[in-house]
Amino acid sequence: MSQFFQIHSETPQKRLIDQAIQIINKGGVIAYPTDSGYALGCRLGEKKAVDRIKRLRSLDDKHNFTLVCSDLSEIGTYAKLENTVFRLLKAHTPGAYTFILHATNEVPRLLLHPKRRSIGVRVPDHAITRALLDALGEPLMSVTLIPEGDSQPMTDAEEIRERFSSQLDLIIDGGACHLEPTSVIDLRDVPPVIMREGRGDVSPFVD
Fold it and tell me: For residues 187, 71, 135 and 119, what is the CA-based torsion angle, rounded to 10 degrees?
């Protein structure tokens, strides 16, 4: 049975954020709100937690995991940022985008695409997510919480509790989220490739 924290979506309570970080640091898997639906998260490189998320989401080894980062500087540690890519990210973060980039050697192998050495990165525009990242001091390994057979992310913490309580260590209720998932944009080549059109406006990435 998971823990269930109700955290204010604009002014997150530090006490509850700190408790959430303790759960993450012990290898826990959490569900938390973002600016585009709820997501599943765990500590970077925590293999058992990553495997649990794969089972919960029915993901294979070809799925691009996402590092949810606090800012561009943190992204630069884990992904290769050429000048053009840096300018694009600077103009569109924080926001409802996931960018696929070439990974650096700082990314644990278990999170990499097995052939392409790519990684997804994202800077959400959500106070709870940003409070978690500030307290954690490193990115969260994350995937959108889209149940098998569904096409949209879950947006209600009570529904997540009913459906997945036995499979999670913590559910953070931050209120309802936007229904649309992030837009996913592959920036490894020119021109960019729109892999999924979601909440983030993709027009700046299309010629």
Answer: 10
Residue 79 lies in a domain: yes
Residue ranges of alpha helices (H) inside the chain are: 14-25, 47-57, 72-78, 83-92, 127-136, 157-164
When divided into structural domains, the chain yields a total of 1
Q: What is the residue range of 102's domain?
A: 3-200
Quote the pTM value. 0.92
Q: What is the rounded CA–CA span in Å between residue 184 and residue 150?
A: 18
- Decide if 35 is inside a domain: yes
Asked if residue 122 lies in contact with residue 41, where contact means CB atoms within 8 angstroms, the answer is: no
Kindly give the confidence (pLDDT) of every residue in the chain, 207 residues in length, as a single tens digit, with 9 standing for 90 and above: 789 999 999 999 999 999 999 999 999 999 999 999 999 999 998 999 999 999 999 887 777 679 999 999 999 999 999 999 999 999 999 999 999 999 999 988 877 766 778 899 999 999 999 999 999 999 999 999 988 888 888 999 999 999 999 999 999 999 988 888 899 999 998 899 999 999 999 998 886
d(CA 106, CA 2): 31
H or E element: which one contains 195? strand 193-196
Residues 180 and 166: their CA atoms lie apart, in Å, by 26
CATH number at residue 11: 3.90.870.10
Tokens read off for 68: 């949810």
Task: Measure the CA–CA gap between 182 and 57, rounded to whole angstroms.
Answer: 17
